[in-house]
Amino acid sequence: MAHVEHVLEEVEATFFMTPVKNMMASALVDGWERRLKDIHDKQVTLNAHGAVGRAVDRLESGVDGLMRRVSELRRQRAGSVPVEPDLSMYEMGWRPPVLGGDHVAGVGNHDRVEFAIVSMLDGYAHGEATEAPRVGLYGIGGCGKSTACAEVATCERVRTLFPRGTVWVQLNDTSTSETVATAVLALVYQLCGEAATKRCQRLTRSKDFVSLVASDMQASLVADASKWLIIIDDVRFDQVGMLTQLLLVVPRAAPVLFTTRSEMVVALVTGAIRMAISCWPEDDARALLTKAIGKRPSIGTRPSKNDSTFSAEEETAWVRRVLDLTHCHVLSVSIVAALLSARCGMWRPVVAALEHQWTDPSFQRPLSGLNPRRSVRATLDTSLELLPDDVHRRAFAALGVLSANEQIGLHVLDRLWRPQLCVVGGASEGGCLSLPQTHCVEDHAVHPGVLRLVDALVRAGLLHQEVADGDLAGVVLHPVVCGYAHSLLGDGFVAAHQRLVDEYARHCPADHADAHGWLGYHFWTTADDGYWCNNVARHAVASEDIFALASLATDEWYAARARTGSTVGHQADVRLVLTSLRAMVDDTDHWVHDSPVLLGAAHWGLAMAFLRRLGCKTAANQEAALILLRRGLDEVSQAAAPLLWAEMQNDLGNVYSYRVSGDKAANFQKAVRCYYHALEVRMQETLAWAETQHCLGMAYADREGGDKVANMEEALAYFRRALDVRTRDAAPLQWADTTLEMGAAYSERVDGDKAVNLEEAVACYGRALEVWTRDQLPLQWVAAQHSLGRAFTQRVDGDKSANLEEAVACYRRALEVWTRATVPQQWASTQLKLAEV
Fold first, then answer.
1. Looking at the structure, do residues 544 and 611 belong to the same domain, yes or no?
2. SUPFAM superfamilies this protein is in (predicted)?
3. Is residue 508 exposed (0-12), middle (13-18) or buried (19+ Cβ within 10 Å)?
């Protein structure tokens, strides 16, 4: 016991007398702990009675107190020796990614965005700009934004301009405020060194951490900041705050590139220079395909369509098809190239699969575990997930029926999104900006939900918005995004097309449609909004709407297309209608064969398309139309669909009236018989009735047999009856058409005074030209000018020389539209008339 107390006294004396410092303190403390533990273990074995018990209690108390003092001393020692912070995490992982072997260099290509960026950086480095540029590179997923910046960062020219190097900050879906703080410290470490980083690390718990670091960076005046290049990759719209924080820390002398899918991110960075990227130039896409099949172009050159790298067969069979299908979208071309390489250059199966499965998720799966390439679909799925809810995703999918690379007006979106617009708003709006309740374009109100949907899609990087006069004018859909949206529609593809067709026809007059709603599509009455006329045929074909297709083969639709001067577009419409309806009629298993009325309508529309193909006076087209109209009338009875039956009878009469083959007199009699059949249904004083009256007038005016005097009088009588209904107020275009034909009848009239008849003809042509203006109806205007010129050459009244001068002026005006390049026959005819004058 005396020994135990002696040890205790020794320990106490040693503890209070020994100076504890550095390594000596550590050794002493470790020794004390071992000795105190031995004493403690021994004391528990002693008897706790009497003097011994009291000594044990004293010993236990003393040992516990000393152990607490030793533990406190150890904590003090640990705090007195600082631990060096690990800064290695700021050294690695902040460099540009390594470019793969499939990359095609672009810094030397004037058509690539890499060249434009390097040129801008070069200008700054040589003092052409006072402030370092902040460049925002935006485009859809997979268009090559990151690889473009990686090439810029690693090219020899940029390494020379920025010898300190490039700091690459990579954002992603999991980026948070903590990862931004790490990126801030990495920037400090790279730009200012270890001492500044250690100083800033002590500020990480402060809520004003970024502001404090930015102030510290500005105060330190980084001398060589201009020798650094900063790149911030893949900034989402909801990460704009992170981007702003990072830009606060970057010295103004250091240029910054940042990439994003959303153009709105660039717009929110004050002073940022916008650069868009959508695809590669064709020559660069060809270069990658060349590598993939194992060919090598000449050193220092890129293969082009004019090179001999590909044979004529290869160019037609697969190169052109690949370029068209991928739209030279970088990731798309890279995937095709990788598939070609994996098959050792066997391009036939790859291209065949490409055309049938390009939007299928399984086609673009990773090629192997060693090459986990992301598919185009997976890349765009990331953008889709940025939308706030399924309402917005369904709205995006509906865009798959629209045209790519074409400005789509808000009215088109209003019609397409009508089902979504009733639910967009409130909770579905997410973080959308506060927008006005209405939006007007060209005096028409647009649902405010259109702007909200556009806003969300632009933020996600799925749309490009077009702004004009400070307002949203429309959107543009990238071809790859359009194909992606199309693939999302699935079974709703036909319904989306049909919805758009119905929305555009919603306010068209029904023209007293019968109980079945036949002839309900009068698209020619819908004002052209810059989209509809050029795309209605495509939507009608996709929806397989028989009556929509047939309506596009009518005279009225031709006149509507001619009003916009788009006869080439009309021929494109006719080709689509022909192809679609012919496929339906020839396929006996098609659902159209289940309905006699629909099958008859398909024959009618196909006949009208034949008549509109390359002119209605082509004998082969006329004979085909006659056969089809007769088959249509075999399917459709007057009782089943009276209006359709009457329409087919009227059109059959027109074919007989202008028929090139067969006996002229017999054709005339058949035409008149068909017109009178049509009048059995067409009610008097209606526009349809007036149309048949006009057609009868045309038949009698062109009749070759019979009494010429009587024929012309009959024609004039029918024209007058037509004009009783076709008034200038009720139907101005039809009024002008009948007025012009009446003028032609007066110029050919035998009965009556010739001078009076010609004056009537000149007056009719003049009245028609009041409606048929050159700006709105150039084709009709030029026809009227030609007819007026001929009337002036025949005119009896007035000064003869003045009449001839008027005729010459009319022919010259006609030649302003009828050029040799566009309509050589009409041009030649007018030239002959001028020669005769």
1. yes
2. P-loop containing nucleoside triphosphate hydrolases, TPR-like
3. middle
Phi then psi for 3, rounded to 5 degrees?
-65, -40
How far apart are alpha carbons 568 and 577 in whole angstroms? 14
- The residue among 754, 783, 812 that closes a domain is 754
What string of DSSP letters covers 125-158?
HTTS-SS--EEEEE-STTSSHHHHHHHHHHSHHH
In which region does residue 58 sit, left (phi positive, over 0), alpha (psi from -120 to 50) or beta (all else)? Answer: alpha
Q: Which residues pair with 230 in a beta bridge?
A: 167, 256
Question: Last residue of some domain: 386, 419, 443?
Answer: 386
Could you tell me the sign of the dihedral formed by the alpha carbons of 61, 67, 70, 76, in that order? negative
Q: What tokens appear for 591 in the block?
A: 């659902």
CA pair distance 439, 796, nearest whole angstrom:
59
Instruction: Please give the model's pTM, rounded to 2 decimal places.
Output: 0.75
Q: Does the residue 517 lie in any domain? A: no
Rounded CA-CA distance 211/672 in Å is 89
pLDDT, one tens digit per residue, over 95-151 is: 898 888 778 999 999 999 999 999 999 998 888 777 889 999 999 999 999 999 999
100 lies in a domain? yes
Query: What number of residues does the chain have?
Result: 837
Indicate if 680 and 814 belong to the same structural domain. Answer: no
Residue span of the structural domain in which 724 resides? 540-754
Instruction: Answer yes or no: are the C-beta atoms of 553 and 577 closer than 8 Å.
Output: yes
Neighbour order of strands in the sheet with 464-468: 408-409, 471-476, 464-468
